[in-house]
């Protein structure tokens, strides 16, 4: 089937055309993403109202470009998928309403996709990975471990109790005046710094639970920066390096524990760990995860970074996987600001298939 996918839940306006072959193999025919850097840069964070307006302004063009690049006409599309949540509700409404209008006018089925399911299933599109596997989602809005048993079948094993990891990178970048987006800026500075000069806390690490907490760490970084102010270039680099070393430790230790749990709950199954979300671009964290996976005898899958961050292909693909199982959504389906992956309505009614 040929799916058009639309993503507007945060600060990227995105559309893609993805083909899912009978065999289950996926092919990305186009994947157009417009990030709203300029709109939000003056505010040091995403402004929901501005995001929604930019989606309204750009989405039609992005969809047209995705169709043109794929060489596929709207009539040839088999179903329309759009993010229906979770996310900034104004933006979600823009994408979902556009998808409804297209579905209604073309007489094609609509798939209302959970954005997190898009992240969760991407590794099947890029690497053809089989269920079950563990996903570590680390982005600007989410940090969680999810056991992916099948399409619509998710178990949340833990997650952040305060800030997301990408958010922590962004906040540290802001207090070190490194600009946006914060993650890459902190990573660049950290390369020049000494990670041992400051030993920042590793919250929750001694506890036996698969949760994260990054807000105390962020406060420790702020207090250190204030104590040293005015900061020299070396101070900034050392703080960035110390922060990155702390979060790398946290993510590595937790992922090791999560893989241990995988081994004990799914004996005889080769453990697989999939990374999703923009923080996957961080080389220190990726290297640490590779090490952890090796020790656990696990397969590690890191999709290309353009498919780890928000994009339309992951929404088209999640829609295609659901569509293949007979799932379709009604045109009056609601947009949802919150929608956990383990919500009961994620499951596909098997009699629909
Ligand atoms: P959502 O959480 O809804 O998926 P998002 O747009 O906030 O949306 P992504 O687009 O997946 O998330 O990723 C952006 C986040 O990833 C930002 O917080 C950014 O700082 C972080 N990030 C990007 N590159 C790096 C890097 N090299 N190191 C650390 N963090 C990074
Ligand atoms: Mg984003
Ligand atoms: Fe996302």
Describe what you observe in this structure.
Its cofactor is Fe(2+). Belongs to the KAE1 / TsaD family. This protein has 353 residues and is of the alpha/beta class. It contains eleven helices and ten strands. It has helices spanning 37-40, 48-70, 89-106, 115-127, 165-175, 182-191, 215-228, 233-265, 283-296, 305-308, 312-324; strands spanning 2-7, 12-20, 26-35, 79-85, 110-114, 133-138, 143-150, 153-159, 272-276, 299-301. It has a five-stranded mixed beta sheet, sandwiched between helices. A five-stranded mixed beta sheet has the order 8-7-6-9-10, sandwiched between helices. Helix 9 links the parallel strand 9 (272-276) and strand 10. Helix 2 (48-70) packs parallel to helix 3, helix 5 runs parallel beside helix 7 (215-228) and helix 5 packs antiparallel against helix 8 (233-265). The longest helix is centred in the C-terminal third of the chain and has 33 residues, at 233-265. The chain is globular, with a radius of gyration of 20 Å. The relative contact order is 0.18. Bound molecules: adenosine-5'-triphosphate, magnesium ion and fe (iii) ion. Fe (iii) ion (FE) binds next to helix 4.
């Amino acid at each position: 089937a040929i799916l058009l996918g639309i993503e507007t839940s945060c600060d990227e306006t995105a559309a893609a055309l993805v083909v899912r072959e009978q065999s289950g193999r996926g092919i990305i025919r186009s994947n157009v993403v417009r990030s709203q850097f300029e709109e939000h840069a003056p505010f040091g964070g995403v402004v929901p109202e501005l995001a929604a307006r930019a989606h309204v302004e750009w989405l039609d063009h992005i969809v047209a470009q995705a169709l043109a690049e794929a060489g596929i006409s709207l009539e040839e599309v088999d179903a329309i998928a759009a993010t229906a949540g979770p996310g900034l509700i104004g933006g979600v409404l823009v994408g979902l309403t556009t998808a409804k209008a297209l579905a209604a006018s073309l007489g094609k089925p609509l798939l209302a996709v959970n954005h997190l399911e898009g992240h969760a299933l991407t590794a099947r599109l890029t690497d053809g990975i089989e269920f079950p596997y563990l996903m570590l989602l680390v982005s600007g809005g989410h940090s969680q471990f999810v056991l992916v048993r099948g399409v619509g079948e998710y178990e949340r094993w833990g997650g952040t109790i305060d800030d997301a990891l990408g958010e922590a990178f962004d906040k540290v970048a802001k207090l070190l005046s490194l600009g946006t987006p914060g993650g890459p800026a902190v990573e660049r500075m950290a390369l020049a710094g000494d990670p041992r000069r400051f030993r920042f806390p590793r919250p929750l690490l001694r506890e036996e639970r698969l949760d994260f907490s990054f807000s105390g760490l962020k406060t420790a970084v702020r207090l250190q920066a204030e104590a040293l102010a005015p900061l020299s270039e070396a101070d900034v680099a050392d703080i960035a390096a110390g922060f990155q070393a702390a979060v790398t430790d946290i993510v590595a230790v937790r992922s090791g524990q999560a893989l241990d749990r995988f081994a004990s709950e799914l004996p005889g199954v080769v453990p697989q760990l999939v990374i999703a979300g923009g923080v996957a671009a961080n080389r220190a964290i990726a290297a640490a995860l590779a090490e952890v996976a090796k020790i656990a005898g696990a397969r590690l899958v890191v999709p290309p970074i353009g498919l780890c961050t928000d994009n339309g292909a992951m929404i088209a693909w999640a829609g295609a996987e659901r569509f293949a199982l007979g799932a379709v959504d009604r045109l009056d389906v609601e947009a949802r600001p919150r929608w956990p992956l383990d919500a009961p309505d994620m499951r596909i009614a098997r009699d629909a298939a």
